[in-house]
Amino acid sequence: MINRIVLVGRLTKDPDFRVTSSGISVATFTLAVGRKFGSDKNGTDFISCVAWRKAGEIISQYTHKGSPLAIDGRLQTRTYDYKDGKRVYVTEVIVDNFTLLGSKSDNQSQGPAPATINQPPVATQTSTNTQDPFADVGNALDISADDLPF
């Protein structure tokens, strides 16, 4: 099974940063990602994202509303019951890696920022190669342009 999300967009507002009761840093933010395909080429999707630990700290410190950001992560769903007993479903992207895409002048006012961070793999993950999720797939197929249906 593959659960991989890659997004490039802009923050819709400043990230919300907090530290859990167990001392773990977390930042939540919404990424506006433009649609460049299909009949709705000018549409925008607003994607909820969560960055834990050091990634959350850095995103909170070096980004703000409108900052361009590239993220790589996984889709996760969760539920909770609202006060009136209604069940609420939430779908979020859990950030594993990210790259700050702002210009030098954007980040200079807040000090030097690392351009990219890769989260260490979570203990429950069995993959040892987080850089290329398809590393063990095998050899590439040799397909000529004449064999493609488009």
TrEMBL record:
One of its GO terms (cellular component) is nucleoid. It comes from the Bacteria. GO terms for biological process: DNA replication. SUPFAM superfamilies: Nucleic acid-binding proteins. Residues 105-138 are annotated as: Disordered. Residues 105-132 have a biased composition (Polar residues). GO terms for molecular function: single-stranded DNA binding. Keywords: DNA-binding. Pfam families: SSB (PF00436). Homotetramer. This is Single-stranded DNA-binding protein.
